[in-house]
Specification:
- The protein is α+β, with helices and mostly antiparallel strands and 98 residues long.
- Helix content is 12%, strand content 12%.
- The chain has three helices and four strands, in the order ββααββα.
- Strands 1-2 form a two-stranded antiparallel ribbon. Strands 3-4 form a two-stranded antiparallel sheet.
- Strand 1 and strand 2 form a beta hairpin.
- The radius of gyration is 15 Å and the shape is elongated.
- It starts with 13 loop residues before the first strand and ends in a 20-residue tail after the last helix.
- Bound molecules: heme C (4 copies).
- The site of one heme C has 19 residues, from strand 2, helix 1 and helix 2.
């Protein structure tokens, strides 16, 4: 195999539909910010938001787009206990933890 300038580092072994992620994507604010930027908006690694958005969040609550579903299912992207990840911490807007 020839080295590819655009290939992610070898630590990126978590294949998501053909896109290689580093291990630990469920807690990106702990595991990805050193290279992908403090807000995951990109640094030496690309922004996460080139590929991830909240387009599928079609349940609008007072103008704020939410995904429909149980709050435990949000932690895949909103970080451990929904404390913040690709999507914001629920506690940024909700007083009680969800
Ligand atoms: C040590 C630095 C570093 C860390 C830590 C890191 N990345 Fe990366 N990542 C990179 C670099 C560098 C690239 C490739 C940049 C380029 O070539 O454009 C990349 C690319 C990627 C890509 C794009 C792959 C593709 O095929 O386009 C994904 C997805 C990604 N990283 C996910 C993650 C996730 C998720 C984490 C945390 C769990 C993480 N990375 C942690 C440096 C890092
Ligand atoms: C080059 C495109 C690309 C980039 C950049 C990228 N991802 Fe992904 N990611 C994907 C694809 C494709 C999937 C699998 C399909 C899906 O779940 O959306 C995925 C899946 C995920 C999932 C699982 C979602 C689920 O529903 O199970 C997480 C979490 C995730 N990525 C985190 C990150 C983080 C954190 C970064 C930035 C450090 C990042 N991704 C950057 C393309 C990308
Ligand atoms: C596959 C990943 C993923 C899952 C699962 C997910 N979200 Fe998100 N969510 C995101 C991303 C990405 C954003 C946008 C972050 C940005 O652009 O700043 C976001 C943003 C949001 C926002 C902020 C919207 C705004 O306008 O500020 C809310 C609220 C939200 N999500 C609710 C939820 C809820 C509730 C669930 C679970 C039922 C959930 N999300 C599950 C990825 C996800
Ligand atoms: C950017 C602000 C914001 C974020 C972040 C946010 N919400 Fe909301 N959410 C709202 C607003 C505004 C409403 C409508 C007013 C209300 O009911 O509190 C709402 C309503 C809700 C409701 C329906 C009302 C209820 O009490 O049953 C649920 C459920 C909910 N949010 C869950 C979540 C979850 C889970 C997360 C994190 C994944 C989250 N929200 C993140 C702003 C936000």
């Amino acid at each position: 195999m020839t080295p590819d300038d655009d290939a992610p580092p070898a630590t990126h072994t978590d294949d998501q539909d053909g896109t290689l992620h580093a291990q630990g994507k469920e807690d990106p604010l702990a595991n990805c910010v050193t290279c992908h930027g403090v807000d995951l908006g990109g640094d030496s690694g690309p922004t996460c938001y080139g590929c991830h958005d909240n387009e599928d969040h079609t349940s609008t609550r007072d103008g704020v787009r939410h995904l429909r579903g149980d709050s435990s299912s949000c932690a895949t992207c909103h970080g451990p206990d929904n404390s913040g990840g690709l999507g914001p911490a629920c506690s940024e807007c909700h007083r009680r933890r969800r």
